[in-house]
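Help needed: design a sequence for this.
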């Protein structure tokens, strides 16, 4: 989750599709790894994991979406990021 929050740390709006691509490049994810599907075969595994990171960050009010497929960091997210947090885990976030 932290890499996605760091990506949003520039306070600009980001398209989810672009964020997935940027993170794949950042982590050196190969085309073969990118094409790996969930066991159900319904979605690419990497895209799904980034999607879940976005969901958890939104639930913790660290990012917000004002329109479909677009997100940006919230003041709460920026404050957390300024503290140079260790890896974010879902069980450490304040989720509803």
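Sure. Designed sequence:
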């Amino acid at each position: 989750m932290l890499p996605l929050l760091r990506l949003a740390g520039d306070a600009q709006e980001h398209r989810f599709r672009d964020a997935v691509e940027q993170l794949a490049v950042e982590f050196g994810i190969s085309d073969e790894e990118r094409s790996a599907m969930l066991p159900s075969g319904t979605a690419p595994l990497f895209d799904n994991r980034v999607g879940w990171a976005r969901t958890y960050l939104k639930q913790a009010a660290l990012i917000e979406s004002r329109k479909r497929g677009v997100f940006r960091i919230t003041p709460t997210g920026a404050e957390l990021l300024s503290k140079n947090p260790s890896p974010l885990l879902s069980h450490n976030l304040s989720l509803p």
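The beta strands are 14-15, 63-67, 70-73.
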